[in-house]
Specification:
The chain is of the alpha+beta class and 737 residues long. It has 17 helices and 29 strands. The strands form 7 sheets. Strands 1, 2, 3, 4, 5, 7 and 8 form a 7-stranded mixed β-sheet that branches. Strands 16-15-18-11-10-20-21 form a 7-stranded mixed β-sheet. Strand 28 and strand 29 form a beta hairpin. Helix 5 packs parallel to helix 7 and helix 5 runs antiparallel to helix 8. The relative contact order is 0.09.
């Protein structure tokens, strides 16, 4: 007996710890909402709601070097949490494509909302990366700009900045201008432009993937090569032009890779790459002409020192080449003094903050109210969720308990159905003024904890004094209703009933009472658009007809005048045709059908866009609960043979474990990488890719987040002019959030 008396507390503590660990590990709960606001052009405010424990360990965000962070963040108490505000002054150069903000926080991820100064708003889920922090990549936030004029202006400006801030580019042109007369310099720069033009064609053929670091290092390597050529007694103009053209190809493909990583694809990528390359080429010609003219004006005295200039340029070029490669793989920095100081501020806030006891529970672990209700309004459905203490139901039901107040495990299911029927009959719901009937009713015994409400998967004996039931009543709708009215009919004495109403934009807390038993939700979503599923047309290829015609004319002219006295005039005409063709290449395109050739073609960048939309369609199909409607939606995206398999796998991926069938509503699908696009038939393709899918669900007052990562090969085929998924072979799947 003494042994049991001593072991009893230990066993009880162990059981409590196991339950607590189960609650904590069952699902990621604390994925906080973070908001990044652009107060004025380039001035950003980042607000993050943190628990007291997190405030003590969170470091300030690490922003690009062009941004000046506020060394002393503002920390304000907000209930059981803290609102931490950071200010980033990036007015010198506003954040844009290619920029990153790292949040070195001990979190699995964040739900980020970005509000730009022009009123545009973007949302996304960002998970923890291998290095230990959460990286916000603006490539994934910024809206894709498809306007050719805007793309041209933006990337022409970026190209000029790239040239003027790249020491290797300046050294290359200045060195060549000092070493060569302009009549020899011009062909070298023309070779560079020709390489850039060839990179444009290769980019359209999806020859993309060259890292930016080596591509930029190749510019410095070219300085070394040109310096070596200048030191030779007999300079070969052909070798000079060939080296410049090779440089242009490598450099252009490096830029194309970066632009593709910023989310540009198809025609938008070609316009952006063309504009960037054109700016670099024009700036190079202008600077080369100026330097060469000045050098010629000074006289032959400078030319006699060409050997010295070549040696200096070669040494500096080699240094820049190694420096560029080293900068591309540099490790992240250490803590700054401001970050160290902030750690002390955060630690003090953590020790002095509130304990953060969940409002659903009392300090003794009991449900705070006999009933706690949650109204969730989402596209295509309305849910009324209720947490109820079982002992509060004895006024309406005969509880099946024994003399010790324990509900047998085998009686729990029947009791749950009784409670669901009771709530369904005593709770009256009007949707747009019409009485609504629940299409699904579910009741489960649950455990309420800090990370949410867990459903007991296996029935166990429940004590009447402690048992809690979670009841869900689901009502299907056509879209988003204009109004939802809930009239509550179960009150214990005069104690009010808390009700929390949540829609896609906001959460509102209220109370119901005997005097005021009705709560009404009104649609204030404005121009909120319903998530839709649309078929994705294969489309006709857009061909650079004008450029191809001019290239053909140039070839004919060169061939026709190769042995005539008009050969020089023919070359000039051919060159003019090629230049005009290059200028028209990304713009003058015509959709055309090619006889005997399949029109359904996919490059890597096109595949990323098509798969992102197809996968979004698959997950969006589950926004509604009717299986028949889900199959109809899936049929727009998946071939018939794969419908059942895709349905089962997608449904399993969207359901949260231990959450009573709660299903994640998908908010984003992002194709992270397309490794290869391989033709499998006359018109089908096998696409090797990596994608992430993320979303959230409101469940009994808690918001749960999910983000999964997939590595798979997806086969797509055109069916009656639209792309459809033929099969999905998942090689690896892992949960990020």
């Amino acid at each position: 007996m003494r042994v049991w008396l001593r072991a009893g507390p230990v066993l009880a503590l162990t059981a409590a710890l196991l339950v607590a660990v189960g609650v904590l590990l069952a699902d990621t709960m604390y994925v906080p909402r973070v908001e990044l606001r652009e107060e004025e052009r380039g001035l950003y405010v980042l607000d993050a709601e943190m628990s007291p424990m997190l405030v003590g360990t969170a470091r300030p965000p690490i922003a690009p070097a062009s941004c000046i962070p506020d060394p002393e963040p503002e920390i304000n108490e907000r209930g059981a949490a803290f609102l931490v505000r950071y200010v980033l002054d990036c007015r010198e150069r506003p954040l844009g494509a290619g920029d990153e903000i790292e949040l070195p926080w001990n979190l699995d991820g964040i739900q980020l909302t970005v509000r730009f100064v022009d009123g545009e708003e973007r949302r996304g889920l960002f998970g923890r990366e291998a290095a230990g922090g959460i990286v916000i990549r603006f490539d994934l936030i910024l809206p894709r700009r498809d306007d050719p004029a805007q793309l041209t202006l933006t990337h022409f400006s970026l190209g000029l900045r790239h040239f003027l801030t790249g020491w290797a580019h300046l050294l290359l042109v200045i060195g060549l201008g000092l070493l060569l007369p302009f009549k020899r310099l011009a062909p070298a720069l023309a070779g560079l432009a020709g390489g850039h033009a060839l990179s444009l064609v290769l980019a359209e053929l999806s020859v993309i993937g060259l890292p930016t670091g080596p591509a930029e290092a190749s510019v410095a390597a070219a300085v070394v090569i040109f310096a070596a050529l200048a030191l030779r007694e007999r300079q070969s103009l052909a070798a000079l032009v060939f080296a410049a053209a090779l440089l242009g190809v490598i450099h252009g493909l490096g830029i194309a890779t970066r632009l593709s990583g910023e989310g540009l694809a198809g025609g938008s990528l070609l316009v952006a790459l063309f504009s960037t390359n054109l700016a670099i080429d024009l700036a190079g010609f202008a600077l080369g002409l100026i330097v060469s003219t000045v050098a010629t004006f000074i006289g032959e005295n400078l030319r006699n020192q060409g050997t010295v200039i070549a040696r200096i340029a070669g040494v500096v070029g080699a240094f820049l080449m190694f420096f560029t490669l080293a900068a591309a793989i540099r490790p992240s920095g250490q803590l700054t003094e401001a970050e160290d100081a902030y750690l002390a501020v955060g630690s003090a806030a953590a020790t002095s903050g509130p304990s953060g006891v969940p409002t659903q529970l009392t300090s003794t672990g009991q449900l705070a109210r006999p009933f706690m209700s949650y109204l969730i309004v989402e596209p295509f459905q309305v849910r009324l969720e209720v947490l109820t203490a079982v002992q509060s139901l004895d006024a309406w039901l005969d509880l099946p308990s024994d003399v010790s107040g324990v509900i047998p495990a085998e009686a729990g299911g029947a009791l749950g159905r009784q409670v669901a029927e009771l709530l369904g009959s005593e709770t009256h719901l009007l949707i747009d003024g019409t009485p609504a009937t629940a299409t699904e009713r579910r009741a489960d015994f649950v455990v309420v904890g800090t990370t949410g409400v867990l459903t007991r998967e296996t029935p166990v004996p429940e004590t009447v004094a402690d048992a809690i039931l979670g009841v869900t009543l689901l009502y299907e709708t056509e879209g988003i209703p204009e109004s939802v009215s809930v009239e509550w009919g179960l009150f214990t004495d005069d104690e009010p009933l808390p009700i929390t109403a949540t829609d896609p934009a906001a959460t509102l807390e209220s109370e119901l009472s005997i005097a005021q038993p009705t709560h009404e939700w009104r649609n204030t979503l404005g121009e909120y658009s319903l998530p839709s599923v649309e078929s994705i047309a294969t489309g006709k290829p857009r061909l650079p007809v004008a450029s191809l015609l001019l290239a053909f004319i140039a070839a004919v002219v060169i061939f026709a005048t190769r042995k005539s006295e008009k050969r020089s005039r023919g070359r000039r005409l051919a060159l003019a045709c090629l230049v005009v063709g290059y200028l028209l290449y990304p713009f003058a395109r015509v959709s055309a059908e090619i006889p005997l050739v399949s029109q359904a073609r996919l490059s890597k960048d096109q595949a990323a866009d098509v798969l992102e939309r197809l996968l979004t369609n698959v997950y969006r199909s589950f926004d509604i609960h009717s299986e028949e409607a889900i199959y109809d939606r899936l049929a727009l995206t998946v071939t018939g043979d794969q419908l059942l398999e895709v349905y089962l796998e997608s449904r399993q991926a969207l359901e949260l474990e231990n959450r009573g069938g709660a299903r994640v509503r998908i908010e984003e699908v992002v194709v992270r990488e397309v490794r290869s696009v391989r033709r499998t038939s006359e018109s089908g393709y096998a696409i090797d890719l990596v994608w992430t899918v993320g979303g959230s669900v409101n469940h009994f007052g808690h918001q749960h987040f999910r983000q999964n990562w997939y590595d798979a090969v997806i086969r797509v085929v055109p069916v009656e002019g639209v792309w459809k998924i033929e099969s999905v072979d998942v090689a690896e799947e892992k949960r990020l959030l």
